[in-house]
Amino acid sequence: MNKRTLLSLCAALLLCAASPAWLLADGHGKNRDRRSECGTLPRNAAYDESCGGCHFAYQPWLLPSGSWKAVLAGLDDHFGNPVVLPDDRRAELAAYLEANAADRFPSRRAEKIMRGLGSATPARITDVPYILHKHHELDDSVLKRPSVGGLANCPACHTTAAQGVYDDDNVIIPR
Q1: Per the structure, how many domains does the chain have?
Q2: In a domain, 52, yes or no
Q3: Per the domain annotation, does 2 fall within a domain?
Q4: Are the C-beta atoms of residues 44 and 91 closer than 8 Å to each other?
Q5: Which of 24, 104, 128, 154 has CB 3.0 to 4.6 Å from 161, enough for a Cys bridge?
Q6: What is the pLDDT of residues 145-159, one digit of tens each?
Q7: What's the rounded mean pLDDT across residues 42-60?
């Protein structure tokens, strides 16, 4: 192995070793939590189709696995609507949601969600204390705007919600 190849290999290894700290960084500006933005959250076509066909397909790391289990167990009355899924589809969704839930997904934001929950298992993302805290300055009149439609409609204001990026830099509150 020549010297140039060895130096390139060392540089690549150093970059990989430094990546977890960068990926798990938190805050605003240059050290944002970029875990989902970097594409490390695996997409699941069954989830996108089954859940995203009716509402925003929330990232699994927004709720703990216990909450996702409860959501799937209550699909006969899913917030007022029955959802019928074949057993194999339900099992696939359960595996995806559990593997990527807030108590298992390695990011600062998921850690903050879990820290705020204690032992609670909220049924709704809008009941997560961390999310409520992040939106506490919003006036109810903003959430009641037809263009916003409530706290559950993340993409109304978070322009990069579909990519799992909820930074203030990407917020545009519609009129």
Answers
A1: 1
A2: yes
A3: no
A4: no
A5: 154
A6: 999 999 999 999 999
A7: 94
